[in-house]
Each structure stands twice: as structure tokens, then as C-alpha cells.
Amino acid sequence: MSRLDWLVLGGALLAVVCWGLYKGRGATSGEAYIGGGRDHRWWLIGLSIIATQMSAITFLSTPGLAYVDGMRFVQFYFGLPLAAIVLSMTALPLYHRLKVSTAYEILEARFDLKTRLLAAGLFLIQRSLSVGITIFAPALVLSVLLGWSIHANILLVGVLVMTYTVVGGTRAVAWAHSSQMVIIAFGMILAGVMTVHRLPAHVSLGDALHVAGGLGRLNAVDLRFDLNNRYNLWSGLIGGFFLMLSYFGTDQSQVQRYLAGSSLTQGRLGLLLNGMVKVPLQFLILLLGVMVFAFYQFHAPPLFFNPGPVKQVLAGPDAPAYRALEADYARARDIQRQRAEAFVAARHAGDAGTIADAKRQLQQAQAGSESVRQKGLALIEKANPGTHPSDVNYIFLAYVLSSLPAGLVGLVLAAVFSGSMSSMSGEISALGATTVVDFWRRLIGGSRGTREVWVGRAATFGWGCFGMAFAEYAARLGSLIEAVNILGSLFYGTILGIFITAFYVKRAHGGTAFYAALAAEAAVLLCFAFTSISFLWYNVVGCVAVVGLAYAFSFLQPSAEAPGGPLETA
Amino acid sequence: TWKRLYLMVLGELLLCILGLRLLAWAFS
Hints:
Strand content of chain B: under 5%
Oligomer: heterodimer
Order of helices and strands of chain A: HHHHHHHHHHHHHHHHHHHHHH
Radius of gyration of chain A: 25 Å
Radius of gyration of chain B: 12 Å
Largest interface: A-B, 26 and 17 residues
Mean pLDDT of chain A: 86
């Protein structure tokens, strides 16, 4: 980190906080604080939706995934445009017509108070835990690669976010999101341009793509249907559709973004902008990882990019064996580099037979170096039992720190911090809003004036502190972090099922959705405990179970109990 | 207008999927 890097990083973060504070000033009522004044334009809503979903770990791990596994991860987002269209046709008009502040308000009108509180409570649990992970995960990467204190990092991000989020509410969050997206876009684009520029002089962008493609890193769309395969076209289109339907339609951290629109049209356009931009955006971030992969075909990479677990090996009895493997890997990669050079030369010469032969030799060299790496991974796993060491989150930042020029390192780090801050601000703002609207206003009967602004600020501050405390605790959780990440997808299908029942199962009323949700959640937990199906399918299981059970339970309930009519979505 | 917009979003998704297949084929 040079002085210029510190200047860029500090300047960017200060600009975000000041911009958020400036644009968020003057909230005088609970409605203005939670609803953001309801005057946001479609482009601001779209940017805010994208920024809320894009956390620092998205920005760090996505290029790493492309480096290790190619571009298959892009399929995870194929269901998103479909969900944006369905929500634009159904949920948005309903939320707008009923003038709700949170998504969960409509559940009481349709079913009863306990169903509303169940959905709001599930949201508070999963989202508050994810705030902690959102700020802990990048803090861990930065502490390992730069030696920064995890505690100081968590405190810095938390204080910066809470400064403008607590003071300005939804409006401050949305405008800060717009500046964070600018920083992330600049960081990404300049890192990509510089990576291509840093390739050897005789290697063009086309050559780099041919090298990466020849080694399987451009395979993005897998047409095979396999329930146990996390990323294929069908898990993305079907499982991803249900997940995104739930995330954008029933998760207050996203619903709050488009409810702040000046009209139904602006909210719909903002959501559809997200639907159009997201897949190309993820493709570009993955392409950045592919270019880093191509870069390392001509430069020597380390055997493992995460130095933490490597230190454990070097401190144990396997240290000599690991050192020998590192030397083997360096030799194997040198052979691979020569083969990559030969492949590029063959392409320039233009003889089809020579090109095919050179490509086959490059693939053999890649298989050879990969087998050495796997032996190294086995030693790392042995020295770190039960922790499943991975370097996916470390590859991109390790590359940036070792290979990019001063100034750009600071900008990429500013993008990482922006990702952390954008997710955390959207989440704690929504947690505060749900606490105020679904609990304080509903159960205590609070007023909507200036006092509610202060209650909203206190709730937002409280959730921010909880997120920071959980991030501190997460530092001691180790591999349980993965379990916390899966926790979110255990609830999403069930919450979506409650909402779909509200919209379309007109027979269901009263407590039917509540009891169906409890039974469906048990089914999802059984799937989690006793099957190996990929987590994307939990969303389908939970949702279908709630809708089916609510329909079945509705026959057991006398129709005289129906308190409210169905919600028409036209 | 809205239906045309929805079709545009769907069309773009289809183009993305086809484009990704084409990219893998062109550089494999």
C-alpha cells in the first residue's frame, strides 16, 4: 500500500459518507425516514437494488471462482430477470396500491397478525446474521493479505455505514449506493484494462481468451440436469428463479428500495433495470477472473493464494513435503508457461494442425500442474482439519496487491469497502424499518411523527451494533460460517410460499399459512439434514410445500373464519 | 408498453445465454 493508495481509499470512503449524509438530511417523519420520501427515480432504484445485492465478498470471490472453476457461477443469476418480470406484474402493483412500508404488512391484511410476525421475524433473524457475515468475510481476507486487524476493520466499516444510515435512513442509503456503484464500476473496469495491459506484449486479448477457453475457463452454460450440481442452466432458471423471487419480492432489504420510488412505474423500471444489468454485470466480473487466470499462464502463481492455512502446514511435520511440492509446482507451472507461449505462437503462425497440437500439450501441462496443486491441497487440509481451506476469496485481491500499480490498488480496496458498506447499509436500514413498522408501530401503537424517526434511528443503530458484534463472534466460528451462509436459503422458500399463498390460494385464510409454513420449514430442514440436493432447490421445496399444505389445510378450516378477502394483483 | 419491456428483458436473457454458449465455442 503506497501513500497514493491510502489517499484514494480514504478519499473515496469519505466521499461516500459525506454524499450519503448530504442527500439524506432532513427526514422529519417516520414515513420520510423509512420510505425515503418516496421520490426516487428508476435509475437510482436500480443502482440501489444492485448495490444492496453486491457485497464485498461478491466482488472478491466471483473472480476467484472464475479462476478456479470457470464461468459456471453466472448461471446462478439466470432466474433473476424472470423474477423481476413476475414481481413487476404482481407484487409491485399490490404493494403500491396498499401503500405499505414493509412487505410483511400485507400478510396481516390477508391472514392474521401471527403470520405477519412470523415472516417479519424470519427476516430479522436471517438478515441480521447476514449483516455480520457481510462485514466479517472481507475483513478476514484483508487481515490475512494485508495484516490489518479484523476488529479495526469491522469497527471502521460499521461506524462509516452507521454514520449516514442512522442519520438519513432510506434516502441516505440509496444515494450512497449510487456513489458506491460508481467506485465499484471504476475499480472493476480499470483492474480489467490493467490486467489485459499487463499480459506479455505479444499476447493479445484474443490470445488470452483462447488460452483460457482452451483450459475450460469460458464454459459458462451447463445444459445437464443434475440436482446435486450447484450451477447448471436448470438450477439457475428454476431454483434461482424461486430464490430471486423471494429475495426481491419478500426481503425488506430489497423491497424497501423500490417502495421508495416516486410511482409504480419508477419502481418497476428500477427492478427491470436490475433484471437487465445483473447477468452481464456478473459475466464481466467473472471475465475479470478469467483474465487473471490468463495472466497467471504467463507469470508464476503461488500454489495456494490464502497464506493463512499454508502457515499451519509450514509450522507442522509436513513442512518439508510441502516445500518440495511448492518447488514441483513452480517447475510444472514453468512448463505450462512455455506451452502457453508455444500455443500463442502457433495461433500467430496460423497452422490448424500445429494449433491443435499446441493446445493439447497446454492442456496436458495444466493437468500436470493441477495434480501437484491437489497434493498440496491435501497437505493443507491435513494441517487444518475440518476447516475446508479455500483460496477462492483470496485470488483476486492477492493478484491486485502483487501486480497492479499504486493508486489502482487503493481504488480496488475502495471498491471492496464500498461493497461491504452498500450491503450493510441496505440491510440495517431494512432491519430498522421492519422493527419500527411490524413490531413497534403495530404492537406498541407508536405515532408516525418525529418520534418515529428517532425510534427508527435507534432500531437501525441497534441492528448495526448487533451486526458488528456478530461479525466479531464470527471470527471465532471458523467453518461454521458456511452454515450461517446456508441459513438464509433455509428460510427463503418458506417466506416466498407464504406470499404466494397470500396472492393465489384464495381458499387459505386465518392461520392456515402460518401452520403450513411451520410444517414446510420442517421439510426444508429435513432436506438439509438428510439429502445432498443443492441449496438452490431448498427454495423450491419450501415454497411448494407451503402452498400445497396451505391449500390442504384450508379444507380443514370452516370458511366462516375467513377474516379478509384475497389480494387481487391486477 | 410493459409487455414489450418484459419481452425485451426476456430477449436479453436469451441473448446472454446464447452469447455465453457462443463465447465458449469460439474460444475453446
